[in-house]
Amino acid sequence: MISKNSSFFFEIRQKFSGPLIMKSLEYEIEINPSKSYWSEIFRLVIEEKWFNTPNDYQIWLKGFSKEQFQLFVAIEKGTGNFIGSVTLTTHELVNGEKISCVGTFILHPEFRGQGIGLTLFNEALKHGATNKTLVAVPSMSDKYASKFGFNVIGTKIIDYYAKCSALKLSSLLTDSRLKITDPSEVGWEKIYAYDRSITGMCFRGDFLREFFSQPGAYNKVVLNENNDIVGYCNIRTGPDNILSIGPFYANSVRLFQII
Ligand SMILES: CC(C)(COP(=O)(O)OP(=O)(O)OC[C@H]1O[C@@H](n2cnc3c(N)ncnc32)[C@H](O)[C@@H]1OP(=O)(O)O)[C@@H](O)C(=O)NCCC(=O)NCCS
């Protein structure tokens, strides 16, 4: 699908050793284009040392409706070359409000610094809910705040890393009253209900099922003696065997440690 007003035209000056050469670039913004664009986005994302997997785009498409999820891709006219991307995922909350999460904002290095990123971002912001949220790299944080007002929740997110070889499995906590089991044994409806009670997000059940079921995902759900869910954890395998933990919820800190 191609969004409205999606054709842009401008000029890039390319300076070679000889005279200045003017080269024109025309591009359009496509929404949820073919899956082949994801491999390019994924490559760039990994270069930035962010975490994604080759399956993510497919999971988003399967797990969310077109109204819930859009990948905006700037594509060079004529060649079909990838220029840049940004995603928007809209969640409806139990209180009836909606919130859209902006992500995967990245341009091919060759096209950076020419105003395309900002145009693409502005195009994406026209969609989704009025309330929007994002996680910024430090160099962009003030810019998002000053240009678009992304300054309401100033949470600082810290990434923690651990080497699996340094983990001491012998010091893990256990509790014989808990049952640690697979999501399929618990049933997805029960898992969605638990997830909703924690996140306040409705309608992300299909996404959770796809996310948990992807290749390279390891997950467990924990039940108490009453068979109530008291936590769950998902771990995904990324490039270079890096593991990413989440979503990971528990009813208490102790349960969190056990899970
Ligand atoms: C960040 C990025 C997507 C911007 O795209 P771009 O095409 O290079 O940016 P533009 O040429 O449109 O930007 C023009 C100006 O607006 C800023 N800008 C771009 N997008 C913006 C946005 N969404 N909000 C606020 N400012 C923005 C740029 O930083 C630049 O500022 P400057 O003039 O102070 O340098 C691109 O540089 C990139 O891919 N960087 C690496 C990945 C990354 O850090 N992504 C951001 C993750 S939070």
How would you describe what is shown here?
This protein has 259 residues and is α+β, with helices and mostly antiparallel strands. The chain folds into two domains: 2-148, Gcn5-related N-acetyltransferase (GNAT) (Aminopeptidase), CATH 3.40.630.30; 164-258, Aminopeptidase (3-Layer(aba) Sandwich). It is 28% helix and 33% strand. It has helices at residues 36-47, 56-63, 116-125, 138-148, 183-186, 188-199, 205-213, 253-258; strands spanning 2-15, 20-31, 69-76, 82-92, 98-107, 132-134, 179-181, 217-223, 229-237, 243-250. The strands form two sheets. A six-stranded mixed sheet has the order 1-2-3-4-5-6, with helices on both faces. It has a four-stranded antiparallel sheet with strand order 7-8-9-10. It is globular. Bound molecules: coenzyme A. Coenzyme A (COA) binds at residues 48, 105-107, 112-118, 121, 136-137, 140, 143-144, 147-148.
Give a brief rundown of this model.
This is N-acetyltransferase domain-containing protein. Residues 29-174 form the N-acetyltransferase domain. The chain folds into two domains: 2-148, Gcn5-related N-acetyltransferase (GNAT) (Aminopeptidase), CATH 3.40.630.30; 164-258, Aminopeptidase (3-Layer(aba) Sandwich), CATH 3.40.630.
